[in-house]
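lol ok so funny story. i was supposed to be doing the assay writeup but got distracted and ended up predicting the structure for this chain instead. priorities right. anyway since i did it might as well share w the group, maybe its usefull for someone
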Amino acid sequence: MAVTHPLPILISSAGPNILLERVPLSGASGTSAYNEDWLQDLLYKHPESLPVAEINPSYAGLIPICREMLTPAGPIDVLYATREGRLAVLEAKLWRNPEARRKVIGQILDYAKELSHWTYETLDAAVRAARRRDQGTARSLFEIVREQHAELDEAQFIDSVSRSLRRGDLLLLIAGDGIRENVGAITNFIEDHGTLHFTFGLIEMAIYRMPDGMHLVQPRVLAHSEVIRRIVVDVRGGQLDEADMESEDDETGSMPRPDLEQQRLKFSAFWKEWMEKFPLDDQSQPIKKPTTWTNQFFDMPKGSKSRVAAVVAEKGGQAGVYMGFPRDPEGDRIYAALLEEQAAVNEAIGQPLKWYTTDNWQGVAIWREFGDQMLTSRRAEVQAWLGDVVNRFVNTFRPRIESLLRDE
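and the output, tada:
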């Protein structure tokens, strides 16, 4: 997954502009001024620098809990928690050791597996022990979080943390420099932990030398959001993604958070209004209730492990419709058969489709740019386009998939 980022420019009002120089942290030219302990300490003291909202916005507002928390799988570099009782695990890695590149992803997944067997009391004891070793005084998990949120209810917080542990509902972060791990290799690790509900993110730490001798640190999500979503889909067995994870949280009684609740109400109203305005031609198509997130799903015939999804990517100013199949014998068979009818399918949809295949997923998608007013001034336009395209997807793919299932 080769990634090349442009260099930042320092604008000067009194002289020439300066193109900042990247400080290598690994390889033959890597500086010894920074090591993994330095990176770990930086991200422990400044969790606000981690772009977690780009990966999963429900983890925004991370609170540092402890460093080097011992588990049977090894010490966790940094543990964070949110006010809502969600947990995040971070591994800080500078890729000077080629062996680390192959092991770190499996290592952080082992941490998640261990934590999924813990109770709140086990976690709290480990937090106290880690704080005592690191800072000389033991403090409980609840006390640390309540320091920033005085209104926090202890019983509700403990219930939420216990639920996150039981479900393996964690945010797993690897932060480092020079991460070039192939996405296929990442998903191979993830498939072995399919019973957990975690979200996974790779964050690159880019450091630039400033003219005054100081350094600029720029953390950034290394993978495109579609890759992150596809990883989450694979983790959940081929069908669930971020939108489903959010709706499940509603049902489990997660602690209220005003900003997320506002987002959920906004999307729920959008999808409810959309489905009322643009009913499908196929009255036999199962209809789900309006979701509270960015995707609205329509299940394809049972046995195909596929569904059509309408998406409003508000942050990117895009709307889209896609349908995918897992990379298994049945999914491969159905997708190959549809590819044989590619010309007829493209004509039936009437808009340019992107046919794609990855290590674990395959399908078709179509996207359209609407800009930053897609849910306000362009709302009717977005809904009309989605209504037309989803209707075409259902009319085109559902009978074909049903026929292919009958043939099997």
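Confidence is low (pLDDT under 50) at residues 224-254. DSSP finds twelve helices and 14 strands in the chain.
back to the writeup now i swear
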